[in-house]
Amino acid sequence: MRKLMAAIGGSMILAAPLAHADVVGLGASVSYWDSDLSGKAADSGDVVDVENDLNLDNDSNVNASLYIEHPVPVLPNVRLNYTLVEQSGRGRLSADFGGINIGSDVRSDLDLEQLDVTLYYEVLDNWVNLDLGLTARDLSGDLLVREATTGVPASETSVDAVIPMGYLAARFDLPLTGVSVGADGNFISFDGDSLYDFNAYGQYEIAMLQLRAGYRQMSIDYEDGNDRLDVDIDGPFISAGVAF
């Protein structure tokens, strides 16, 4: 992890004098992400399939971002991003899990929350835009599985950590049209754990309004003590934002 952070940090230092905003810029957006969940969770050695055994469905999705860019070339720009995924469902276990016997009907709830603080530099800023930086992700995830009739026994799988990640964003503007396409993402892989969060989109901008539609995929393979989440969350999204 130290090697990854050093490499990215060195790239950021080299990139800093290449491009910077002429004036202070501020932007914000909110989005709806129609996501599906697949993968596995582990609790003290017991493993459950979150899609087939728990039948989790998307209940709510909150996504919001805020960024500020400035003309000081030495200092990085700042982006904040918040994501909340809540899913629940009823299913039947195909194996023992967390003290609940195989074949039991279960009720399950997954809450996945993350706050990203990203420091980045603009490497290119014209019809081709390229940003490079580092993200600190505050990740918190809880999966609660209960016997459907009585609610007991219950098994809780939890992960909670602040994780450094690389950040890369690219956008290509079609001049004089307000149309652009782009992609951005955060990523890290270290010591058997990995997190990836990427999206690709098309954007239309008119005046200060930015409208986007695209596809986002997030992959979490993270172990916290005896608990482990190895899940993929992906699906289309739409967003609306403003830029000043």
UniProtKB/TrEMBL annotation:
Keyword Signal on this protein? yes
**Keywords carried by this UniProt record:** Signal
The signal peptide stretch is 1-21
Q: What is this protein called?
A: Outer membrane protein
InterPro entries in the cross-refs: OMP_w_GlyGly
Keyword set includes Signal: yes
